[in-house]
Amino acid sequence: MVFTAQQIAGYTGGMVEGDPNVTVNNFAKIEEGTEGALSFLANPQYEQYIYETKASVVLVNQDFQPSQEVKATLVRVANAYESVAKLLQLYQSMQQKRVGIDSLAFIHPSAKIGKDCYIGPFVAIAEGVEIGDGVVLHPHVTIGRNAKVGSNTEIYSNAVIYHDCVVGSRCILHAGCVIGADGFGFAPTANGYDKIPQIGIVTIEDDVEIGANTCIDRSTMGSTIIHKGVKLDNLVQIAHNVEVGQHTVMSAQVGVAGSSKVGEWCMFAGQVGIAGHLKVGDRTTLGAQAGLAGGNLARKGGATLMGYPAIEHKKFAKNMAALNSLPDLLKEVAALKKEIEELKNNK
Protein backbone atom coordinates (compact mmCIF):
# COMPACT_ATOMS: atom_id res chain seq x y z
CA MET A 1 0.00 0.00 0.00
CA VAL A 2 1.35 3.39 -1.07
CA PHE A 3 0.24 6.78 0.25
CA THR A 4 1.29 10.30 -0.68
CA ALA A 5 2.09 12.99 1.84
CA GLN A 6 -1.04 14.83 0.70
CA GLN A 7 -3.23 11.76 1.35
CA ILE A 8 -1.70 11.39 4.82
CA ALA A 9 -2.37 15.04 5.55
CA GLY A 10 -5.96 14.66 4.40
CA TYR A 11 -6.54 11.66 6.63
CA THR A 12 -4.94 13.22 9.71
CA GLY A 13 -6.19 16.78 9.20
CA GLY A 14 -2.62 17.98 8.75
CA MET A 15 -0.73 20.38 6.48
CA VAL A 16 2.09 19.38 4.13
CA GLU A 17 5.42 21.19 4.28
CA GLY A 18 7.52 19.98 1.36
CA ASP A 19 6.67 17.69 -1.56
CA PRO A 20 2.97 16.72 -1.34
CA ASN A 21 3.45 13.95 -3.93
CA VAL A 22 6.24 12.06 -2.15
CA THR A 23 5.09 8.50 -1.36
CA VAL A 24 5.55 6.10 1.56
CA ASN A 25 4.86 2.39 1.83
CA ASN A 26 5.96 1.48 5.37
CA PHE A 27 6.53 2.82 8.87
CA ALA A 28 9.82 3.33 10.70
CA LYS A 29 11.15 4.91 13.88
CA ILE A 30 12.63 8.29 13.13
CA GLU A 31 16.16 7.14 14.02
CA GLU A 32 15.81 4.18 11.64
CA GLY A 33 13.93 5.87 8.80
CA THR A 34 14.69 4.86 5.22
CA GLU A 35 13.46 6.10 1.86
CA GLY A 36 9.77 5.34 1.43
CA ALA A 37 9.13 5.24 5.19
CA LEU A 38 6.71 7.29 7.28
CA SER A 39 7.98 8.35 10.70
CA PHE A 40 6.98 10.81 13.42
CA LEU A 41 8.46 13.17 15.98
CA ALA A 42 6.47 13.62 19.17
CA ASN A 43 9.15 13.63 21.88
CA PRO A 44 11.59 16.59 21.73
CA GLN A 45 14.38 14.28 22.96
CA TYR A 46 14.40 12.74 19.46
CA GLU A 47 14.61 16.02 17.55
CA GLN A 48 18.22 15.40 16.52
CA TYR A 49 17.10 12.49 14.34
CA ILE A 50 14.76 14.57 12.18
CA TYR A 51 17.80 16.27 10.63
CA GLU A 52 19.46 12.92 9.87
CA THR A 53 16.55 10.61 9.05
CA LYS A 54 16.16 9.14 5.56
CA ALA A 55 12.38 8.79 6.07
CA SER A 56 10.40 10.35 3.23
CA VAL A 57 7.63 11.79 5.41
CA VAL A 58 7.69 12.77 9.08
CA LEU A 59 4.64 13.68 11.15
CA VAL A 60 5.35 16.57 13.54
CA ASN A 61 3.29 18.69 15.91
CA GLN A 62 2.00 21.98 14.53
CA ASP A 63 4.24 24.02 16.84
CA PHE A 64 7.48 22.24 15.88
CA GLN A 65 10.18 24.72 14.88
CA PRO A 66 13.27 23.12 13.29
CA SER A 67 16.64 24.55 14.23
CA GLN A 68 18.21 23.49 10.91
CA GLU A 69 17.24 22.17 7.49
CA VAL A 70 14.95 19.13 7.35
CA LYS A 71 15.21 17.08 4.16
CA ALA A 72 12.08 14.99 4.74
CA THR A 73 8.61 16.22 3.83
CA LEU A 74 6.79 17.25 7.00
CA VAL A 75 3.11 16.82 7.77
CA ARG A 76 2.13 19.15 10.59
CA VAL A 77 -0.71 17.78 12.74
CA ALA A 78 -2.36 18.64 16.05
CA ASN A 79 -0.79 15.62 17.78
CA ALA A 80 1.88 13.57 16.01
CA TYR A 81 1.63 10.60 18.37
CA GLU A 82 -2.15 10.31 18.02
CA SER A 83 -1.92 10.76 14.25
CA VAL A 84 0.60 7.97 13.75
CA ALA A 85 -1.57 5.71 15.92
CA LYS A 86 -4.53 6.52 13.67
CA LEU A 87 -2.47 5.70 10.57
CA LEU A 88 -1.23 2.43 12.06
CA GLN A 89 -4.84 1.44 12.78
CA LEU A 90 -5.73 2.22 9.16
CA TYR A 91 -2.78 0.19 7.91
CA GLN A 92 -3.73 -2.78 10.09
CA SER A 93 -7.38 -2.64 9.01
CA MET A 94 -6.30 -2.95 5.38
CA GLN A 95 -4.37 -6.17 5.98
CA GLN A 96 -6.02 -9.28 4.60
CA LYS A 97 -7.89 -11.12 7.34
CA ARG A 98 -7.65 -14.89 7.69
CA VAL A 99 -10.89 -16.81 7.47
CA GLY A 100 -11.70 -20.50 7.90
CA ILE A 101 -11.59 -23.37 10.35
CA ASP A 102 -8.47 -25.50 10.47
CA SER A 103 -8.99 -29.24 10.21
CA LEU A 104 -7.01 -29.76 13.42
CA ALA A 105 -9.33 -27.56 15.52
CA PHE A 106 -11.86 -29.23 17.86
CA ILE A 107 -15.31 -27.65 17.98
CA HIS A 108 -18.08 -29.28 20.00
CA PRO A 109 -21.17 -29.89 17.86
CA SER A 110 -23.31 -27.72 20.17
CA ALA A 111 -21.05 -24.68 19.80
CA LYS A 112 -22.27 -21.77 17.65
CA ILE A 113 -19.68 -20.20 15.37
CA GLY A 114 -20.35 -16.86 13.62
CA LYS A 115 -19.57 -15.87 10.06
CA ASP A 116 -16.10 -15.08 8.68
CA CYS A 117 -14.20 -16.48 11.68
CA TYR A 118 -10.69 -17.91 11.71
CA ILE A 119 -10.10 -20.85 14.02
CA GLY A 120 -6.53 -22.11 14.00
CA PRO A 121 -5.07 -25.57 14.59
CA PHE A 122 -5.50 -27.16 18.02
CA VAL A 123 -8.07 -24.64 19.15
CA ALA A 124 -10.52 -26.32 21.56
CA ILE A 125 -14.10 -25.04 21.78
CA ALA A 126 -16.31 -26.77 24.34
CA GLU A 127 -20.04 -27.40 24.44
CA GLY A 128 -22.45 -24.48 24.47
CA VAL A 129 -19.88 -21.90 23.40
CA GLU A 130 -21.02 -18.93 21.31
CA ILE A 131 -18.52 -17.25 18.99
CA GLY A 132 -19.50 -14.02 17.20
CA ASP A 133 -18.82 -12.99 13.61
CA GLY A 134 -15.28 -12.23 12.52
CA VAL A 135 -13.59 -13.72 15.58
CA VAL A 136 -9.94 -14.80 15.22
CA LEU A 137 -8.70 -17.66 17.42
CA HIS A 138 -5.01 -18.42 17.05
CA PRO A 139 -3.58 -21.93 17.57
CA HIS A 140 -4.02 -23.61 20.98
CA VAL A 141 -6.71 -21.24 22.28
CA THR A 142 -9.13 -22.95 24.70
CA ILE A 143 -12.72 -21.80 25.17
CA GLY A 144 -14.57 -23.48 28.07
CA ARG A 145 -18.15 -24.63 28.08
CA ASN A 146 -20.91 -22.04 27.71
CA ALA A 147 -18.44 -19.18 27.33
CA LYS A 148 -19.26 -16.35 24.93
CA VAL A 149 -16.94 -14.35 22.67
CA GLY A 150 -18.24 -11.23 20.90
CA SER A 151 -17.76 -10.28 17.26
CA ASN A 152 -14.38 -9.23 15.80
CA THR A 153 -12.46 -10.23 18.92
CA GLU A 154 -8.96 -11.68 18.46
CA ILE A 155 -7.49 -14.20 20.90
CA TYR A 156 -3.84 -15.22 20.62
CA SER A 157 -2.21 -18.59 21.19
CA ASN A 158 -2.51 -20.44 24.50
CA ALA A 159 -5.03 -18.03 25.96
CA VAL A 160 -7.72 -19.76 28.03
CA ILE A 161 -11.30 -18.63 28.56
CA TYR A 162 -12.82 -20.67 31.40
CA HIS A 163 -16.39 -21.93 31.44
CA ASP A 164 -19.31 -19.48 31.45
CA CYS A 165 -17.14 -16.38 31.07
CA VAL A 166 -18.10 -13.59 28.68
CA VAL A 167 -15.77 -11.65 26.38
CA GLY A 168 -17.16 -8.69 24.44
CA SER A 169 -16.71 -7.46 20.90
CA ARG A 170 -13.54 -6.02 19.37
CA CYS A 171 -11.39 -7.24 22.26
CA ILE A 172 -7.77 -8.38 21.98
CA LEU A 173 -6.51 -11.10 24.31
CA HIS A 174 -2.80 -11.77 24.02
CA ALA A 175 -0.92 -15.04 24.34
CA GLY A 176 -1.18 -16.95 27.59
CA CYS A 177 -3.76 -14.79 29.31
CA VAL A 178 -6.23 -16.65 31.56
CA ILE A 179 -9.79 -15.46 31.97
CA GLY A 180 -11.85 -17.07 34.72
CA ALA A 181 -9.44 -19.13 36.82
CA ASP A 182 -10.60 -19.58 40.42
CA GLY A 183 -10.26 -16.64 42.75
CA PHE A 184 -7.84 -17.10 45.64
CA GLY A 185 -10.39 -18.04 48.28
CA PHE A 186 -9.60 -20.32 51.23
CA ALA A 187 -11.02 -20.62 54.75
CA PRO A 188 -8.47 -21.41 57.50
CA THR A 189 -9.27 -24.44 59.65
CA ALA A 190 -7.46 -26.42 62.32
CA ASN A 191 -6.25 -28.81 59.64
CA GLY A 192 -5.26 -26.33 56.95
CA TYR A 193 -7.30 -24.38 54.42
CA ASP A 194 -10.67 -25.31 52.96
CA LYS A 195 -11.21 -24.15 49.42
CA ILE A 196 -14.13 -21.75 48.94
CA PRO A 197 -15.82 -22.64 45.64
CA GLN A 198 -15.68 -19.83 43.10
CA ILE A 199 -19.01 -20.15 41.32
CA GLY A 200 -19.10 -16.76 39.59
CA ILE A 201 -17.74 -15.68 36.22
CA VAL A 202 -15.67 -13.00 34.49
CA THR A 203 -17.35 -10.42 32.26
CA ILE A 204 -15.17 -8.49 29.83
CA GLU A 205 -16.97 -5.74 27.97
CA ASP A 206 -16.27 -4.37 24.47
CA ASP A 207 -12.98 -2.89 23.21
CA VAL A 208 -10.84 -4.30 26.02
CA GLU A 209 -7.21 -5.32 25.43
CA ILE A 210 -5.53 -7.79 27.78
CA GLY A 211 -1.77 -8.40 27.72
CA ALA A 212 0.20 -11.63 27.61
CA ASN A 213 0.05 -13.84 30.71
CA THR A 214 -2.41 -11.56 32.46
CA CYS A 215 -4.90 -13.31 34.74
CA ILE A 216 -8.43 -12.24 35.62
CA ASP A 217 -10.03 -14.46 38.29
CA ARG A 218 -13.67 -15.50 38.36
CA SER A 219 -15.74 -14.18 41.23
CA THR A 220 -16.82 -16.13 44.28
CA MET A 221 -20.39 -15.19 43.33
CA GLY A 222 -21.63 -12.81 40.66
CA SER A 223 -18.98 -11.53 38.27
CA THR A 224 -15.54 -9.99 38.12
CA ILE A 225 -16.10 -7.13 35.65
CA ILE A 226 -13.75 -5.40 33.23
CA HIS A 227 -15.69 -2.53 31.70
CA LYS A 228 -15.41 -1.30 28.13
CA GLY A 229 -12.23 0.25 26.82
CA VAL A 230 -9.96 -1.03 29.60
CA LYS A 231 -6.34 -1.75 28.60
CA LEU A 232 -4.29 -4.17 30.70
CA ASP A 233 -0.59 -4.75 30.09
CA ASN A 234 1.29 -8.05 30.41
CA LEU A 235 1.45 -9.90 33.75
CA VAL A 236 -1.41 -8.04 35.41
CA GLN A 237 -3.40 -9.83 38.14
CA ILE A 238 -7.06 -8.97 38.69
CA ALA A 239 -8.49 -10.89 41.64
CA HIS A 240 -12.00 -12.20 42.25
CA ASN A 241 -14.97 -9.83 42.47
CA VAL A 242 -12.92 -6.85 41.29
CA GLU A 243 -14.59 -4.25 39.08
CA VAL A 244 -12.47 -2.08 36.76
CA GLY A 245 -14.13 1.04 35.37
CA GLN A 246 -14.20 1.89 31.69
CA HIS A 247 -11.07 3.22 29.92
CA THR A 248 -8.77 2.52 32.86
CA VAL A 249 -5.23 1.45 31.93
CA MET A 250 -2.78 -0.67 33.93
CA SER A 251 0.90 -1.26 33.16
CA ALA A 252 2.82 -4.49 33.67
CA GLN A 253 2.74 -6.37 36.98
CA VAL A 254 -0.10 -4.42 38.53
CA GLY A 255 -2.02 -6.44 41.12
CA VAL A 256 -5.56 -5.67 42.30
CA ALA A 257 -6.73 -7.70 45.30
CA GLY A 258 -10.19 -9.14 45.77
CA SER A 259 -13.41 -7.11 45.78
CA SER A 260 -11.76 -3.76 45.06
CA LYS A 261 -13.58 -1.31 42.80
CA VAL A 262 -11.48 0.76 40.43
CA GLY A 263 -13.04 3.81 38.79
CA GLU A 264 -13.07 5.08 35.22
CA TRP A 265 -10.10 6.60 33.37
CA CYS A 266 -7.59 5.59 36.04
CA MET A 267 -3.91 5.10 35.20
CA PHE A 268 -1.75 2.62 37.12
CA ALA A 269 1.97 2.46 36.35
CA GLY A 270 4.09 -0.69 36.62
CA GLN A 271 3.98 -2.87 39.76
CA VAL A 272 1.22 -0.92 41.47
CA GLY A 273 -0.49 -2.91 44.23
CA ILE A 274 -4.09 -2.40 45.40
CA ALA A 275 -5.24 -3.99 48.65
CA GLY A 276 -8.56 -5.80 48.84
CA HIS A 277 -12.02 -4.27 49.38
CA LEU A 278 -10.91 -0.75 48.43
CA LYS A 279 -12.60 1.84 46.27
CA VAL A 280 -10.48 3.87 43.84
CA GLY A 281 -12.19 6.95 42.44
CA ASP A 282 -12.34 8.01 38.81
CA ARG A 283 -9.20 9.44 37.16
CA THR A 284 -6.84 8.35 39.92
CA THR A 285 -3.21 8.04 38.85
CA LEU A 286 -0.81 5.75 40.72
CA GLY A 287 2.92 5.99 40.06
CA ALA A 288 5.20 3.00 39.57
CA GLN A 289 5.36 0.59 42.55
CA ALA A 290 2.78 2.57 44.51
CA GLY A 291 1.00 0.54 47.16
CA LEU A 292 -2.56 1.55 47.98
CA ALA A 293 -3.88 0.37 51.32
CA GLY A 294 -6.72 2.87 51.69
CA GLY A 295 -7.24 6.60 52.17
CA ASN A 296 -9.72 9.31 51.25
CA LEU A 297 -7.59 10.71 48.41
CA ALA A 298 -7.93 7.51 46.41
CA ARG A 299 -11.64 7.15 47.14
CA LYS A 300 -12.39 10.72 46.07
CA GLY A 301 -10.62 10.31 42.73
CA GLY A 302 -8.60 12.69 40.58
CA ALA A 303 -5.45 12.37 42.70
CA THR A 304 -1.92 11.43 41.65
CA LEU A 305 -0.39 9.17 44.30
CA MET A 306 3.04 7.60 44.71
CA GLY A 307 5.01 5.45 47.14
CA TYR A 308 4.02 2.97 49.83
CA PRO A 309 1.72 3.62 51.50
CA ALA A 310 0.59 5.72 48.54
CA ILE A 311 0.50 9.47 49.27
CA GLU A 312 0.01 12.64 47.23
CA HIS A 313 2.82 12.89 44.69
CA LYS A 314 4.15 16.30 45.80
CA LYS A 315 4.41 15.11 49.38
CA PHE A 316 6.12 11.94 48.15
CA ALA A 317 8.70 14.04 46.26
CA LYS A 318 9.44 16.11 49.40
CA ASN A 319 9.78 12.94 51.48
CA MET A 320 12.22 11.44 48.98
CA ALA A 321 14.28 14.63 48.95
CA ALA A 322 14.44 14.50 52.76
CA LEU A 323 15.37 10.82 52.64
CA ASN A 324 18.25 11.54 50.26
CA SER A 325 19.66 14.07 52.74
CA LEU A 326 19.35 11.64 55.67
CA PRO A 327 23.01 10.43 55.63
CA ASP A 328 24.29 14.00 55.97
CA LEU A 329 21.73 14.69 58.68
CA LEU A 330 22.90 11.63 60.64
CA LYS A 331 26.48 12.86 60.42
CA GLU A 332 25.43 16.26 61.74
CA VAL A 333 23.51 14.68 64.63
CA ALA A 334 26.49 12.49 65.49
CA ALA A 335 28.77 15.55 65.45
CA LEU A 336 26.37 17.50 67.68
CA LYS A 337 26.17 14.61 70.15
CA LYS A 338 29.95 14.49 70.28
CA GLU A 339 30.13 18.24 70.99
CA ILE A 340 27.52 17.93 73.74
CA GLU A 341 29.47 15.10 75.39
CA GLU A 342 32.67 17.15 75.25
CA LEU A 343 30.93 20.12 76.82
CA LYS A 344 29.60 17.92 79.61
CA ASN A 345 33.06 16.45 80.27
CA ASN A 346 34.69 19.91 80.41
CA LYS A 347 32.41 21.20 83.19
Summarize the structure in words.
- With 347 residues, the chain is of the alpha/beta class.
- The chain folds into two domains: 91 residues, 3-Layer(aba) Sandwich (Udp-n-acetylmuramoylalanyl-d-glutamate--2,6- Diaminopimelate Ligase, Chain: A, domain 1); 216 residues, 3 Solenoid (UDP N-Acetylglucosamine Acyltransferase, domain 1).
- It is 18% helix and 29% strand.
- It has six helices and 40 strands.
- The strands form six sheets. A twelve-stranded mixed sheet has the order 8-11-14-17-20-25-28-31-34-37-39-40. It has a ten-stranded parallel sheet with strand order 9-12-15-18-21-26-29-32-35-38, with no helix packed on it.
- Strand 39 and strand 40 form a beta hairpin.
- The protein is flat and about 95 Å long.
- The chain starts with a strand and ends with a helix.
- The model has no long low-confidence stretch (mean pLDDT 94).
Low-confidence stretches: none
| Head-to-tail CA distance between termini | 92 Å
Can you identify the CATH superfamily of the largest domain?
Hexapeptide repeat proteins
What's the CATH topology name of the largest domain? UDP N-Acetylglucosamine Acyltransferase, domain 1
Give the strand order of the largest sheet, numbering strands 1, 2, ... along the chain: 8-11-14-17-20-25-28-31-34-37-39-40
**Inertia-based shape:** flat
CATH class of the largest domain: Mainly Beta
* Extended strand count: 40
Integer tally of domains: 2
Described by strand count, sense and barrel closure, the largest sheet is:
12 strands, mixed
Radius of gyration: 27 Å
Number of discrete helical segments? 6
CATH architecture annotation name of the largest domain: 3 Solenoid
